[in-house]
Specification:
Blueprint (H helix, E strand, L loop, with lengths): L6 E2 H7 L5 H9 L3 E3 L2 E2 L5 E2 L5 E3 L2 E2 L8 E6 L16 H5 L6 E2 L8 E7 L2 H8 L7 E7 L5 H9 L2 E2 L4 E2 L4 E6 L2 E6 L6 H7 L5 E9 L2 E2 L8 E3 L2 H10 L5
Parallel strand pairs: 9-15
Antiparallel strand pairs: 1-4, 2-3, 2-5, 5-6, 7-9, 7-17, 8-9, 10-14, 10-15, 11-12, 13-14, 15-16
Helix pairs in contact: 1-2
Length: 241
């Protein structure tokens, strides 16, 4: 994707596959973006004729959209750079292109992530109001009760976040394992919800994001989304490919 017309800087950064627009705003606020040699400020507009630099390198919008499904192992950290992380997602993914993720998983969680160089897709997928489904398999440390399932589905007040979770769908798999389908992505949401009822999460695995499923990917493996799967993803996100 290229643009000869003026666009807001945060959108331009997202179009380059660096990060979402929200995270781009933080990069700008932190003084990590320069435009034509000057430290950028919020609200400015740029075109392809401007020299936009991040981390000492010029960034440009991607000409071809790429969307990847990736199976994140436990221990991999969802960040581009972290001197204290044993392994970051970009290191583990190991692809020769700049992509970023739509919706993170914490270090202790595993499973499906979607990464892309299309900032508009990231923006659409991360917009909470859109209510996109994400499905997880969760194992907890003791026996699940009917009350637990019922109350979790209704929504749980999380005092740390001062929010009540949206109603969701739970399906019991075994005495200590269940599936859960969420339509929002609060920080450590499932772990916090379980903790509210005295359960500790032993294992948390994301198996679906919208119409995209993990589909047997081994840890650290990825596949390129294409065909009907890719078209449906864009359609569900309200975008054209």
């Amino acid at each position: 994707m290229s643009t000869d017309n003026e666009v807001r800087l945060n959108k331009f950064i997202a179009m380059c596959g660096v990060c979402s627009r929200r995270d781009a705003d933080k990069l700008i606020d932190d003084g990590k973006i320069t435009v034509n040699g000057a430290v950028a400020t919020q609200g400015i507009k740029v075109t392809n004729n401007d020299i936009v630099m991040y981390d000492g390198k010029q960034i440009k919008p991607m000409e071809e959209k790429v969307v990847l499904a990736y199976n994140k192992p436990v221990g991999v950290v969802c960040t581009e750079k972290d001197d204290h992380a044993e392994r970051t997602i970009i290191e583990d993914l190991n692809v020769d292109m700049r992509v970023t993720y739509a919706g993170r998983l914490d270090k202790d969680s595993e499973g499906l992530m979607i990464l892309t160089n299309d900032g508009d897709l990231i923006q659409a997928m991360m917009r909470g109001a859109n209510g996109h489904e994400k499905e997880y398999v969760v194992e907890v440390d003791h026996k699940i009760t009917d009350r637990f399932l019922r109350e979790m589905e209704k929504g749980v007040y999380l005092p740390e976040l001062e929010q009540t979770t949206r109603p969701c769908k739970l399906t019991k798999i075994t005495d200590t394992c269940f599936k859960i389908v969420l339509t929002q992505g609060l920080n450590r949401q499932i772990r916090r919800m379980c903790d509210a009822f005295g359960y500790n999460v032993v294992k948390l695995k994301r198996i679906r994001i919208m119409n995209v499923e993990l589909q047997g990917l081994n840890y650290s493996e990825h596949r390129v989304l294409e065909g009907e799967e890719l078209r449906t993803l864009y359609q569900n996100a309200g975008l054209d490919i």
